[in-house]
Amino acid sequence: MNMTDINSNRTKNRRRIKLIVFNGIVAALYVVFTAPFANIAFGPIQVRIAEVMTLFPIYSAGMIPGVVLGCFISNLINPGNLGPIDIIGGTLATLIAGILSYLIGKKNRWFGIIPPVVINGIIVGGYLPFVLVDGTSSVTIPSVLISMLSVAGSEATILIVLGIPLIAVMERTGLKSKLP
Protein backbone atom coordinates (compact mmCIF):
# COMPACT_ATOMS: atom_id res chain seq x y z
CA MET A 1 0.00 0.00 0.00
CA ASN A 2 1.32 3.41 -0.90
CA MET A 3 0.69 6.71 0.95
CA THR A 4 -2.11 7.71 -1.44
CA ASP A 5 -4.03 4.52 -0.65
CA ILE A 6 -3.50 4.98 3.10
CA ASN A 7 -4.72 8.59 2.96
CA SER A 8 -7.69 7.56 0.83
CA ASN A 9 -8.66 4.87 3.36
CA ARG A 10 -8.33 7.34 6.25
CA THR A 11 -10.59 9.79 4.45
CA LYS A 12 -13.18 7.09 3.79
CA ASN A 13 -13.05 5.98 7.42
CA ARG A 14 -13.51 9.57 8.63
CA ARG A 15 -16.54 9.95 6.36
CA ARG A 16 -18.05 6.71 7.67
CA ILE A 17 -17.46 7.73 11.27
CA LYS A 18 -18.94 11.18 10.64
CA LEU A 19 -22.00 9.58 9.02
CA ILE A 20 -22.52 7.19 11.94
CA VAL A 21 -22.03 9.92 14.55
CA PHE A 22 -24.35 12.40 12.79
CA ASN A 23 -27.05 9.77 12.40
CA GLY A 24 -26.73 8.71 16.03
CA ILE A 25 -27.11 12.32 17.14
CA VAL A 26 -30.09 12.89 14.84
CA ALA A 27 -31.80 9.70 16.07
CA ALA A 28 -31.20 10.69 19.70
CA LEU A 29 -32.46 14.23 19.13
CA TYR A 30 -35.55 12.92 17.36
CA VAL A 31 -36.38 10.86 20.45
CA VAL A 32 -35.55 13.73 22.83
CA PHE A 33 -37.85 16.08 20.91
CA THR A 34 -40.66 13.51 20.72
CA ALA A 35 -40.79 11.47 23.94
CA PRO A 36 -41.37 14.31 26.44
CA PHE A 37 -44.23 15.58 24.29
CA ALA A 38 -45.92 12.18 23.82
CA ASN A 39 -49.34 13.59 24.67
CA ILE A 40 -49.24 15.75 21.54
CA ALA A 41 -46.76 13.74 19.41
CA PHE A 42 -48.97 10.69 18.84
CA GLY A 43 -52.56 10.51 17.62
CA PRO A 44 -54.68 12.20 14.97
CA ILE A 45 -53.14 15.60 15.68
CA GLN A 46 -49.40 14.96 15.77
CA VAL A 47 -47.32 17.90 16.87
CA ARG A 48 -43.86 16.37 16.67
CA ILE A 49 -41.18 18.99 16.98
CA ALA A 50 -38.67 16.34 15.87
CA GLU A 51 -40.34 16.17 12.46
CA VAL A 52 -38.39 19.28 11.52
CA MET A 53 -35.44 16.90 11.12
CA THR A 54 -37.24 15.23 8.22
CA LEU A 55 -35.87 18.15 6.22
CA PHE A 56 -32.23 17.10 6.69
CA PRO A 57 -32.46 14.65 3.76
CA ILE A 58 -33.08 17.63 1.48
CA TYR A 59 -29.35 18.28 1.83
CA SER A 60 -27.98 14.79 2.38
CA ALA A 61 -29.32 11.29 1.78
CA GLY A 62 -26.87 10.26 4.48
CA MET A 63 -29.19 11.78 7.10
CA ILE A 64 -32.12 9.49 6.27
CA PRO A 65 -31.02 6.61 8.56
CA GLY A 66 -30.84 8.88 11.64
CA VAL A 67 -34.29 10.35 11.08
CA VAL A 68 -35.78 6.91 10.39
CA LEU A 69 -34.11 5.36 13.44
CA GLY A 70 -35.29 8.23 15.64
CA CYS A 71 -38.85 7.78 14.41
CA PHE A 72 -38.66 4.01 14.99
CA ILE A 73 -37.39 4.42 18.56
CA SER A 74 -39.96 7.13 19.33
CA ASN A 75 -42.82 4.98 18.08
CA LEU A 76 -41.43 1.97 19.95
CA ILE A 77 -41.23 3.77 23.31
CA ASN A 78 -44.49 5.70 22.89
CA PRO A 79 -46.21 5.43 26.29
CA GLY A 80 -49.54 4.88 24.53
CA ASN A 81 -47.92 2.31 22.22
CA LEU A 82 -50.09 1.89 19.15
CA GLY A 83 -48.53 -1.44 18.25
CA PRO A 84 -46.58 -2.82 15.33
CA ILE A 85 -48.71 -1.05 12.74
CA ASP A 86 -47.58 2.33 14.06
CA ILE A 87 -44.02 1.26 14.75
CA ILE A 88 -43.56 -0.16 11.25
CA GLY A 89 -45.98 2.11 9.37
CA GLY A 90 -44.68 5.36 10.86
CA THR A 91 -41.08 4.31 10.30
CA LEU A 92 -41.82 3.29 6.71
CA ALA A 93 -43.57 6.63 6.09
CA THR A 94 -40.51 8.46 7.40
CA LEU A 95 -38.20 6.39 5.18
CA ILE A 96 -40.28 7.05 2.05
CA ALA A 97 -40.60 10.75 2.89
CA GLY A 98 -36.84 11.00 3.49
CA ILE A 99 -35.99 9.41 0.16
CA LEU A 100 -38.48 11.61 -1.71
CA SER A 101 -37.33 14.75 0.12
CA TYR A 102 -33.77 13.98 -0.93
CA LEU A 103 -34.71 13.35 -4.56
CA ILE A 104 -37.01 16.36 -4.83
CA GLY A 105 -34.78 18.58 -2.66
CA LYS A 106 -31.86 18.07 -5.06
CA LYS A 107 -33.88 19.93 -7.68
CA ASN A 108 -35.72 22.39 -5.41
CA ARG A 109 -35.10 22.46 -1.65
CA TRP A 110 -38.42 24.20 -0.96
CA PHE A 111 -40.39 21.44 -2.68
CA GLY A 112 -38.44 18.95 -0.56
CA ILE A 113 -40.71 19.98 2.32
CA ILE A 114 -43.74 18.40 0.62
CA PRO A 115 -43.01 14.63 0.96
CA PRO A 116 -43.12 14.46 4.79
CA VAL A 117 -46.49 16.24 4.75
CA VAL A 118 -48.06 14.12 2.01
CA ILE A 119 -46.55 10.74 2.92
CA ASN A 120 -47.27 11.04 6.66
CA GLY A 121 -50.75 12.31 5.89
CA ILE A 122 -51.54 9.36 3.63
CA ILE A 123 -49.78 6.52 5.47
CA VAL A 124 -50.00 7.52 9.15
CA GLY A 125 -53.31 9.31 8.75
CA GLY A 126 -54.60 6.28 6.85
CA TYR A 127 -53.91 3.73 9.58
CA LEU A 128 -54.46 5.82 12.73
CA PRO A 129 -58.26 5.51 12.76
CA PHE A 130 -57.88 1.73 12.75
CA VAL A 131 -55.42 1.61 15.65
CA LEU A 132 -57.20 4.29 17.69
CA VAL A 133 -60.74 2.94 17.27
CA ASP A 134 -62.43 1.80 20.45
CA GLY A 135 -64.98 -0.97 20.72
CA THR A 136 -67.95 1.41 20.55
CA SER A 137 -67.26 3.07 17.22
CA SER A 138 -66.36 2.06 13.70
CA VAL A 139 -63.97 3.40 11.10
CA THR A 140 -65.57 5.18 8.17
CA ILE A 141 -64.16 6.62 4.98
CA PRO A 142 -64.81 10.17 6.21
CA SER A 143 -63.00 9.43 9.49
CA VAL A 144 -59.97 8.12 7.55
CA LEU A 145 -59.95 11.18 5.28
CA ILE A 146 -60.23 13.51 8.28
CA SER A 147 -57.35 11.65 9.95
CA MET A 148 -55.21 11.99 6.81
CA LEU A 149 -55.90 15.72 6.61
CA SER A 150 -55.26 16.14 10.33
CA VAL A 151 -51.89 14.40 10.26
CA ALA A 152 -50.87 16.23 7.06
CA GLY A 153 -52.01 19.55 8.55
CA SER A 154 -50.06 18.94 11.76
CA GLU A 155 -46.96 18.00 9.79
CA ALA A 156 -47.32 21.03 7.51
CA THR A 157 -47.68 23.33 10.52
CA ILE A 158 -44.46 22.07 12.12
CA LEU A 159 -42.54 22.24 8.84
CA ILE A 160 -43.79 25.74 8.04
CA VAL A 161 -43.32 27.17 11.54
CA LEU A 162 -39.98 25.48 12.32
CA GLY A 163 -38.79 23.88 9.08
CA ILE A 164 -38.70 26.91 6.80
CA PRO A 165 -36.66 28.93 9.32
CA LEU A 166 -34.36 25.90 9.78
CA ILE A 167 -33.75 25.71 6.04
CA ALA A 168 -33.07 29.46 5.92
CA VAL A 169 -30.55 29.17 8.77
CA MET A 170 -28.88 26.16 7.16
CA GLU A 171 -28.60 28.07 3.89
CA ARG A 172 -27.34 31.29 5.45
CA THR A 173 -24.79 29.74 7.82
CA GLY A 174 -23.51 27.00 5.56
CA LEU A 175 -24.62 24.25 7.97
CA LYS A 176 -26.02 22.30 5.02
CA SER A 177 -22.49 21.63 3.82
CA LYS A 178 -21.54 20.16 7.21
CA LEU A 179 -24.00 17.27 6.90
CA PRO A 180 -22.43 13.98 5.84
General description of the model:
The protein has 180 residues and is an all-alpha fold. It is 69% helix and 0% strand. It has helices spanning 3-32, 38-41, 64-77, 84-107, 114-132, 141-173. Helix 5 packs antiparallel against helix 6 (141-173). The model has no long low-confidence stretch (mean pLDDT 91).
The secondary-structure element order is HHHHHH
- Major sheet attributes: none
Distance between the termini: 27 Å
Overall pLDDT metric: 91
Topology summary:
Blueprint: H1 3-32, H2 38-41, H3 64-77, H4 84-107, H5 114-132, H6 141-173
Please give a quick description of this structure.
With 180 residues, this protein is an all-alpha fold. The chain has one domain (3-178). Helix content is 69%, strand content 0%.
